[in-house]
Specification:
This protein is an alpha+beta fold and about 450 residues long. Helix content is about 25%, strand content about 35%. Helix 1 packs antiparallel against helix 2.
Length: about 450
């Protein structure tokens, strides 16, 4: 019996970690911490039961002999002189906390290493989406990965590199390259009207972004250092470029002038090497509705986008040509009663493994005072309080709320980010989930505006 309790004490954190491994994306970080703490309490109980079972076993050994016999006396003295049991009982909380904490830190870290290895194999050998594009270029070989350096953060997490759009000293949005802790910041653009919505190609070599022009927003292309910039499409309002896994084609949305760019928008695809482009969806029924904010899955077979096909703006997922489209993340409510405005969804983002989609959900900002022209600060606060980032599985079966904010992204190692206004900083605050809790990404300086950011691949 003592051996059983001791074995269970050693196995408890391993079994707990294995259970959380499959449920991690469905659990909030708070729940993960509660589960880990509960397992530590269970471990203390198991270790105490081991001591008590050992004590009972020794007493049973004493009871085997007739009282007063030399054997009984010797067994009784052995039981009384064994002080290790009491010492172990007193230290059981400390021993359990140390052992379980070490196991969780080791296994969660090992999980990151395994995930990086698997994703490297997938990106390096399996990505060939060109065959899925009926009118695009032939399938390309898996692109070589550009050399990418990295640092280690204070919590031991690898520091990746990002390209961020934030305002310069003159208030104009420019692109900056840096580590995710804000170190090594270097300005890439010198735009007169502003650059925003950067998107780095999967091979880490090229950068698509949007630059404001006199009459709209142009689609731009450069290398990841901002050099050799050229215009891909100048006319109209071009927004939210996103790469296909071949690092050759991009998808983006064209929008009509107005307060909500998703209304009346359509999705296009372009070969960035030849400049050839077309609408991605061609079915007449699909084109009756708005289709916007496209992001292609890491394997290149599916696309997530925003559409009003079911009434309000929702996250949809379809095959790359638009077929087999389905809404993926039904909200809990369709309309906010107090605000009397619909709940909408926008800004989808695929996880690196293609298993999850993060997105924004809430009442659209066009209902706020600065758009309506009618001052109503209480209503504005209610609207802002609806802004949340959600994560949904790619098959739509599981959904969880990440936290307040907007503009979700995924880090190369599979952690979701969210951004929200921070009055103390005078600008946006960007947070990232990690295995050990949320951390701030200091990528936007205080008292500056921003226009989103993109991760550079490892």
């Amino acid at each position: 019996m003592p051996t059983l309790f001791l074995t269970a004490w050693f196995a408890c954190p391993l079994l707990t970690w294995a259970a959380m491994l499959g449920l991690r994306r469905r659990m909030s970080l708070g729940v993960v911490w509660v589960v880990c703490l509960t397992s530590v309490i269970a471990g203390v109980v198991l270790l105490a039961n081991y001591v008590w079972a050992l004590d009972a076993e020794l007493l049973a050994e004493v009871d085997k002999y007739e009282p007063g016999t030399p054997e009984a006396q010797r067994a009784s003295e052995e039981w009384a002189s064994d002080t290790d049991r009491s010492f172990l009982l007193v230290l059981s909380p400390l021993l359990t906390a140390v052992w379980y904490g070490a196991v969780y830190l080791l296994l969660f870290g090992l999980r990151r290493v395994v995930r990086r290895m698997l994703l490297t194999v997938i990106w390096g050998t399996l990505l060939s989406p060109g065959a899925l594009l009926s009118q695009a270029a032939p399938p390309a070989q898996a692109p070589p990965t550009a050399p990418q350096g990295s640092n280690e953060g204070s919590a031991g997490r690898e520091l990746h590199r990002v390209i961020v759009s934030h305002s310069d000293k003159d208030g104009v949005l420019q692109l900056y390259r840096m580590h995710e802790d804000g170190s090594g910041r270097r300005q890439l653009t010198e735009s007169q009207r502003g650059c925003r919505m950067p998107s780095c190609s999967p091979d880490g070599r090229r950068l698509a972004y949007v630059q404001q022009t006199e009459h709209g927003f142009a689609l731009m292309l450069s290398d990841v250092d901002g050099k050799d910039a050229k215009v891909l499409r100048e006319e109209g309002v071009n927004l939210v470029p996103s790469w296909l896994p071949d690092s050759k084609h991009i998808v983006w949305m064209t929008s009509l002038p107005g307060s909500d760019p998703t209304n009346g928008s359509q999705i296009h695809i372009m070969n960035t090497e030849t400049g050839e482009s077309r609408r991605l969806f061609s079915d007449t029924e699909q084109l009756k509705f708005s289709n916007s904010m496209p992001v292609v899955s890491p394997m290149g077979r599916r696309i997530a986008f925003v559409s009003n096909r079911s009434g309000n703006m929702r996250i949809w997922v379809s095959d790359l040509d638009g077929s087999n489209a389905q809404p993926i993340s039904p909200p809990d409510i369709e309309e906010h009663e107090a605000i009397q405005a619909p709940i909408e969804q926008k800004v989808p983002a695929w996880s690196p493994d293609g298993q999850w989609i993060a997105h924004w959900e809430g009442v659209e900002a066009i209902h706020m005072s600065r758009f309506t022209g009618i001052p109503n600060p209480e209503r504005d606060q209610l609207i802002a309080a609806t802004f949340h980032v959600w994560v949904v599985s790619s098959d739509g079966t599981h959904r969880r709320k990440v936290g307040p904010g907007d503009d979700p992204t995924w880090s190369p190692d599979g952690f979701v980010t969210r951004a929200f206004p921070d009055p103390h900083r005078g600008g946006p605050k960007v947070m990232i989930e990690t295995e050990l809790g949320e951390q701030e990404l200091a990528i936007v300086p205080p008292n500056t505006n921003w226009g989103r950011f993109t991760w550079l691949p490892r």
